[in-house]
Design a protein that fits this description.
Length: 245
């Protein structure tokens, strides 16, 4: 099968300085500020020769981003140094999170989680390297929501272990994290995905805050995972799916 490059399906959420982009982890909205220095003003509208602006944001808390194991490691690891290929066969699945009915060592009653059984039932990709998970209901609120202090849906570590057992190296989700918002810093699903620190998989990535419109059907696609050339554990990213001919 060949990808149809004339039909790009962008599943990233644009960053915006007006506060409309989704956010998490109590970070401020992205800021875009005109540079002003002496008589210089970086705004054509204000009489300057060029538009010249500073941008301030947090890659984990502001919009679509891709991260590497450097997110949880004691050592400094850069996504730019460890993600060296950018095109992968991918499967898109849609899952309705389950409600936890009683407290346990991983979850609290009322939490919404993605379980191993759900992923196992939906996954079909024998040679798939990327998995995109769309959670249901798939509301437009995902494009603008501030997830801080809302205890959003997350993945059970068993689901993550099943995902990597299927050969998935790149996990893309429409959530702010694959772990519980408040978990005492354990980040069990992140640790499971990267097998850190025992058998660290440096090449694997997690992409969070994607949005997959309803008109994109579950199934198989060709993924182009674009990042910024930035020496950091995470980068703003632009994942684009292409249907097969």
């Amino acid at each position: 099968m060949n990808p149809d490059f004339s039909r790009p399906l962008d599943i990233s959420i644009p960053l915006s300085s007006d506060g409309s982009s989704p956010s998490a982890w109590y970070v401020d909205p992205m800021k875009i500020e005109i540079v002003r220095a002496g008589r210089f003003v970086g705004s054509v509208q204000e009489g300057g020769s060029t538009n010249f602006r500073n941008i301030t944001f947090n890659p984990h808390g502001n919009g679509t981003h891709t991260e590497c194991v450097g997110h949880i490691a004691q050592q400094v690891y850069s996504l730019n140094q460890h993600l060296k290929t950018f095109h992968f066969p991918a499967q898109l699945i849609s899952l309705k999170p389950e409600v936890v009915t009683q407290d346990n060592e991983l979850s609290k009653k009322g939490d919404y989680i993605i379980t191993e059984a759900q992923v196992r039932q939906a996954f079909q990709g024998s040679s798939t390297k990327a998995l995109v998970v769309r959670t249901l209901p798939n509301t437009q609120e995902k494009l603008h929501r501030n997830y801080s202090n809302t205890n959003p849906c997350y993945f059970h570590p068993d689901a993550i272990r099943y995902i990597i057992q299927q050969g998935i190296d790149h996990l893309l989700v429409d959530l702010p994290s694959i772990d519980r918002e408040e978990d005492e810093g354990k980040l069990l699903s992140h640790h499971s995905f990267w097998e850190y620190p025992e058998n660290t998989a440096f090449h694997r990535t997690i992409t969070e805050f994607v949005f997959v419109p309803d008109e994109i059907n579950d199934g198989f696609y060709f993924l182009n995972l674009m990042i910024t050339a930035m020496e950091n554990d995470a980068s703003p990213s632009k994942p684009v799916l292409y249907p097969y001919l």
